[in-house]
């Protein structure tokens, strides 16, 4: 099989997959299908790879003579491999679970506050979920610590060694007007995760952490956590 034939096979896979994804007719052009997926169906994964898809469409038109359906050029081997990988990336996109920190540390309302703060400092952790009865009831964060210190100064006091997390104004499960938290299932794509962080910035908020669980909300035991520091894994993690 020539490389042009290999390219045709892989391109047909891409076209078939996209048309099935869009529930399109067989006679619909792949360009119109891509436009529909991006602009109407708001397919986040296809939008991520739209530029690549359109480049492969242009290359297909250059390789295959439209009137005779015969190959008139040979693509590079690397080009065929890139097209093959594109099909995989769209069919099996990376997910929240791929980039989440899975060795999740949680605390309870009865845990010692001073010990929790020391633990966060030692492990360079910025937010710790508070879990009670298998639900997330809040977070201990840098903001929590700042509020505690401010209050201590106001009252001319100090941190009480015996204080427990339940004794302080910890963050609410979804945060407040400026610092927020979010929840997703394992299958949410990394591109949606990127959008969540970007949307928060656009709205003038800080997304401190995203918790990953089977239910995707605060009423489930968190299985992993994603912070902005994990976004670099998107380009370095295989699906």
Through-space gap between termini: 28 Å
How much is the radius of gyration in Å? 25 Å
Q: Which geometry do the CA atoms define?
A: elongated
Task: Tell me, rounded to a whole number, the average pLDDT.
Answer: 90
Number of helices: 9
| Helix and strand pattern | HHHHHHHEEHEHEE
Q: Which structural class fits the helix and strand makeup?
A: alpha+beta
Report the portion of residues in β strands.
Answer: 5-15%
- Could you give the count of β-strands? 5
The low-pLDDT segments are none
Helix content: 40-55%
Strand order of the largest sheet: 3-4-5
Comma- or semicolon-separated keywords:
239 residues, three-stranded mixed β-sheet, 5 strands
Describe the 3D structure.
This protein has 239 residues and is an alpha+beta fold. Helix content is 44%, strand content 12%. It has 9 helices and 5 strands. The protein is elongated. The protein starts with a helix and ends in a 13-residue tail after the last strand.
């Amino acid at each position: 099989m020539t490389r042009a034939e290999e390219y045709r096979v892989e391109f047909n896979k891409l076209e078939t997959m996209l048309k099935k994804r869009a529930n399109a007719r067989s006679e619909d052009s792949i360009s119109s299908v891509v436009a529909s997926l991006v602009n109407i169906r708001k397919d986040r994964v296809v939008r991520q790879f739209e530029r690549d898809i359109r480049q492969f469409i242009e290359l297909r038109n250059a390789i295959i003579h439209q009137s005779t359906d015969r190959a008139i050029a040979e693509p590079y081997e690397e080009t065929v491999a890139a097209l093959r990988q594109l099909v995989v990336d769209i069919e099996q996109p990376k997910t929240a679970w791929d980039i989440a920190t899975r060795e999740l540390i949680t605390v309870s309302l009865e845990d010692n506050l001073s010990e929790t703060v020391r633990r966060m400092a030692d492990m360079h952790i910025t937010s710790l979920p508070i879990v009670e009865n298998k639900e997330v009831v809040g977070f201990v964060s840098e903001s929590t610590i700042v509020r505690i210190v401010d209050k201590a100064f106001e009252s001319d006091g100090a941190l009480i060694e015996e204080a427990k997390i339940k004794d302080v104004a910890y963050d609410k499960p979804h945060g407040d007007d400026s610092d927020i938290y979010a929840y997703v299932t394992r299958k949410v794509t990394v591109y949606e995760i990127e959008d969540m962080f970007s949307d928060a910035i656009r709205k003038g908020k800080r997304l401190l952490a995203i918790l990953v669980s089977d239910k995707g909300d605060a009423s489930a035991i968190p299985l992993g956590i994603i912070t902005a520091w994990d976004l670099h894994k998107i380009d370095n993690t295989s699906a």
